Amino acid sequence: MPRHIVYRDMTLRACVAATEVARRAVKFVARNTLLPARLRVKAQLELNSFPRWTRPSGIRDRCVLSGRGSQIIGDFKLNKNMFRVLAKRKQLPGVHEFRPKRDDLRQLEIVQEWKTHHNKMKALGKAPSESGLRLKGNR
């Protein structure tokens, strides 16, 4: 990812942080319905006069390693591809490969068996309930 995008993101975050307190104060005055309308309009005009790069809505989550701005996994601040690479290398704490238990596998086998049987009965034109095969939990 080009470095200029990462640098632009860093400067944008710094600008937003520098004006955050002032923006919030002006926004509070502009939105407060208990204050006179003239004061609120003045505050709204002042809020509109702030530069556009100081708006918090312009900040976008980016991957801390690659700088990509899409498909970010929020808890790790990583792109899904970088997350996958680091997880395979076992470099992410608390992340491990999914290994289903025996009971889960047996349940998956039962469901798969039922689905294939259901499709066969459908192809023959019979209702699946006529065949007599049911899932284990539905008696």
In short:
With about 140 residues, the protein is an all-alpha fold. It has helices at about 5-30, 35-50, 80-90, 100-125, and strands spanning about 70-75, 80.
Describe the structure.
It is a single chain. This protein has 139 residues and is mainly alpha-helical. It folds into three domains: 1-59, no CATH class; 62-97, no CATH class; 102-131. The protein has helices spanning 3-31, 37-49, 80-88, 102-124, and strands at 72-73, 78-79. It has a two-stranded antiparallel sheet. A hairpin with a 4-residue loop joins strand 1 and strand 2. The mean pLDDT is 84. Belongs to the universal ribosomal protein uS14 family. One of its GO terms (biological process) is translation. GO terms for molecular function: structural constituent of ribosome. Residues 119-139 are annotated as: Disordered.
